[in-house]
Description:
By secondary structure, this protein is an alpha/beta fold.
Amino acid sequence: xxVPAYEVRNLVKRYAPDLPPANDGLSLDIYQGEIFxxxxxxxxxxxxxxxxxxxxxxxxSGTIRLFGHDVVADxxxxxxxxxxxxxxxxxxxxxxxxxxxxxxxxxxxxxxxAARKQxxxxxxxxxxxGKLKVPFHRLSGGQRRLISIALALMGDRPVLVFDExxxxxxxxxxRVVWQRIQEGARGGRTVILVTHNVVEAxxxxxxxxxxxRGQILALGTPGELKxxxxxxxxxxxxxxxxxxEQAAGWLLERSAIPMGARRYAVIVPRPQAxxxxxxxxxxxxxxxDFRIVTPNLEDxxxxxxxxxxxxx
Length: 312
């Protein structure tokens, strides 16, 4: 039987009485040894939830239990078990990467020798050896993010929380980062990932909660959630400048969903896919590109949110 790391019940967070709650009655369990994801658009309440799980923000109401302990009543317990990689990380700007890693390891109870050994392993894994004498403030955005990920990994905390960890990273480095994170989960650590990257969510997560406006719309494995829309396909359309204006009536008729600048999605049942494609062909001169996409977590979100995109 899966053992909960976190047990969250009826969690509410309000920043002001006249504003909608950032988290609105959230309840979920996060199990030991799993990679659990929070997927949703910016402003959905994902980071607010993480700040409460990691003791940075106190809930307005509700309970959070970590390994059976009430961490709302005693948030100091969280820091013995949880390591966080936040989106923004304020570090001493003149410090060198290795010194930051070693100090973090020592603060987490490691001996100097053990902290140096783990720091050197992470520096090698993330290909940061050429940056050992570069102060933190002079590193690129991607390099600073790698250091923040490495800092979270120092000391082998039983719970690791990553907030959009692979932003600013190139594909090869991203692969190495996920290899490290997945190794941690296989070793029994609980990993919580905040993301709005659908591809990332589908490939690395064991379970995912889709979050919108402070509430959980759906919770399950990526496969379970995609099963909700298995009978549909999505046509993705990229219009030439002005093309979407010329096709405005047709897009309205097809209930097309805006996905970004000149980008639209049309969701159709599989049996109607051929008809929908035939309907697109006379409008090819208005398009730069179009493609057919099988269901993914974006489609689940589109259905549950009434047509709002994760990228919105």
